[in-house]
Amino acid sequence: MPVIPGSSYKPSFLFRFRHINTIYPSFFRSFPDFPYKRERIFTPDGDFLDLDWTGNGSDRLIIVLHGLEGSAQRPYV
After folding, report:
1. Which of 66, 69, 37, 68 is nearest to 51 (CA)?
2. Do residues 50 and 38 lie in contact, with contact meaning Cβ atoms separated by under 8 Å?
3. What are the CA-CA distances from residue 67 to residues 7, 31, 47 (Å)?
4. Where are the alpha helices (H) located in 1-77, listed in sequence order?
5. How far is it, in rounded angstroms, from Cα 5 to Cα 17?
6. Comparing C-alpha atoms, which of 45, 44, 62, 41 is closest to residue 53?
7. Residue 24 neighbours by CB distance under 10 Å
8. How far apart are CA 37 and CA 52, in angstroms?
9. Cα–Cα distance, 11 to 76 (Å, whole number)
10. How confident is the prediction along the chain (77 residues), in pLDDT tens digits per residue?
């Protein structure tokens, strides 16, 4: 990643290290509890897809896809 010349950003002592910036949030962040509505779609090959919906009545939509072994309950989603 290129360095931005003239940047005035100065991280605190602990966060000068890249690995700390990656690891710290996994231990100390909280996750909001969204009320999901699950919809299961069965496929012709006998498998299924689970769709988890949450919303507030807005007409906007965001699609968030997890990895092959993930789910909506994983912390990274």
Report:
1. 37
2. yes
3. 35, 19, 17
4. 18-28
5. 19
6. 62
7. 13
8. 6
9. 24
10. 677 777 787 878 877 887 887 888 778 877 777 788 899 999 999 999 888 888 777 788 888 888 777 777 776 66
